[in-house]
Here is the input.
Amino acid sequence: MAVIDQSITDFFNEKKQELEAWYPGIKLSRLKLELLEFANEDNLEIIFQKLQAGVPLQYITGKAAFYHHEFEVTSDTLIPRSETETLVELTLVELKKIEKLPEVLDIGTGTGAIIISLLGEAPLNGMATDISEKALEVAKRNYLNLKPSLKDGSIEFRNTDRLEGIDKKFHLIVSNPPYIKKEGDKDLVHHQVKKYEPSQALFLNDEDYKNWFEVLFKDSLAHLLENGVFLMEGHENHLDDLKELSEKIGFERVEILKDLSNRKRYLKAYGQTSN
Ligand SMILES: C[S@@+](CC[C@H](N)C(=O)[O-])C[C@H]1O[C@@H](n2cnc3c(N)ncnc32)[C@H](O)[C@@H]1O
Here is the structure.
């Protein structure tokens, strides 16, 4: 172990400036600690190669911390972000108002981070969809691995486009969908994100954007039980337009909510009410 520790220290001393440029969001001391935990004689060279290529830490170690758990991530899944933890918190507030066992759908589940974190906090009947079969495999593994620490309930995984083929209704529908315009927003995305994270998880073609959300909103509204709530994460530049669109489609009350840095990041929309 001392040899590995020394090799990593030497590498970090030699490449300090490059590492600071490649990993702007993380302190080098933390990066080093995380790698020390993961490195062994067999993977050390590969780790150095990946660091020099700027591969995100979570794709090197194959795991990411999210909410109260550690999730497996692969190059087929988005690395779950801290702003999505706020979406989990917002959803939990709604979840706790439901008197029956809540029926909850997570659209575009990726690693399963949202729905699994919700089941970590409260019993529920969950369903999770993703268009990527490979991402769903990761989500299923995360569910099985974390199941012993979750509350009572279950999660069913479906490989489908948004809500296609789903024939039940939900108290809550939550989603962190792809919400970046491929051309219009391209300068807003860090080049490492563009290079390493799955394009399908991040981007929509500019010309399809409105229609994509129109289908998402229409189908979500149709799949909400009475007094049901739809919550999603979005980009601050587009949430006003999406709010207008969701209101046009028939959601009764739509609110834009802010993240911890006071930026518009989430949409909360109520389905049809009983009164
Ligand atoms: C922004 S990522 C979110 C992943 C995860 N929920 C999270 O918050 O970390 C969007 C996810 O939606 C999936 N996706 C993209 N288009 C989809 C579609 N039409 N139907 C269902 N899932 C889709 C992607 O494969 C990806 O896993």
